[in-house]
Write a structure and sequence with these properties.
alpha+beta; 234 residues; binds glutathione
């Protein structure tokens, strides 16, 4: 029952955002070095940037910064001067940026065709629906929970609007686990190599090089993350 509610509310969040991030748009130049995004899953402004990454078929190194988190928040404060999220580092452009609208504009200018889709543009529609989407997932991907840091980053194949990928990302976020995010939205040129790598076109797909684990299925991924990196009572 709990799982049904979980999937249904995640699906509702996707519908609220009219599926933004389900498929790719016009792609421009590709970054030579990976983008870095400091964010947390529940933050509506971070959601907007993740939707842009998915639409533009961009990979990113994700550094989860849930409220109360001590693993990556200090880095954002050190680099940018304040704890505000999202915070994007684009080494290709020599930019370190706050403000979701500026980040989205930068991403579409540099890695798209320069046109920000209407549902990602500044304004009431995106503000209200992004906030509503977070409202369907109260408390999920919001606060840090005790965890053990992995030795190295994990890898997640995902796309932003998948209800199941969201469930996996929320757990990664709350446990402050860094990961390489491979976006494979519909139409992504990366799908072919993903299928060659994983054996089938299904996301989320988690790889943990620290333990040699590879998993499909959001429920299994959440269980694995809790058992491996969750630290109850710490
Ligand atoms: N105008 C900013 C607003 C960003 C913002 O308010 N982010 C919130 C999270 S949703 C934040 O950083 N809060 C501080 C915190 O979480 O400590 C944007 O669009 O990026």
């Amino acid at each position: 029952m709990q799982r049904t509610v979980d999937v249904a509310t995640s699906f509702a969040a996707t519908l609220t955002r009219v599926g933004s991030g389900i498929s790719i748009g016009a792609l421009g130049a590709r970054p030579e070095q990976p983008l870095e995004l400091y964010e947390f899953e529940a933050c509506p402004f971070c959601r907007k940037v993740r939707e842009a990454l998915s639409t533009l078929d961009l990979e990113a190194r994700i550094f989860p910064c849930p409220k109360g988190g001590g693993r990556y928040r200090p880095e954002v404060r050190r680099r940018g001067g304040k704890e505000q999220f999202p915070f994007l580092v684009d080494p290709n452009a020599g930019r370190e940026m706050y403000e979701s609208d500026d980040i989205v504009r930068h991403l579409f200018d540099r890695y798209g065709d320069g046109k920000v889709p209407a549902w990602l543009a500044p304004g009431a529609f995106s503000r209200v629906t992004l906030t509503l989407a977070s409202g369907f997932r109260p408390g999920r991907g919001l606060r840090a929970r005790p965890s053990v840091a992995p030795e190295g980053p994990l890898e997640l194949w995902s796309f932003e609007s998948s209800p199941f990928c969201r469930i996996a990302r929320e757990a990664l976020c709350e446990l402050e686990i860094p990961y390489a995010l491979h976006n494979v939205a519909k139409g992504s040129p990366g799908r072919e190599s993903f299928v060659a790598r994983s054996g089938r076109m299904m996301v989320p797909f988690l790889v943990d090089p620290n333990t040699g684990t590879e998993l499909f299925e959001s429920a299994d991924i959440v269980r694995y993350l809790e058992e491996t990196y969750g630290a109850p009572g710490r």
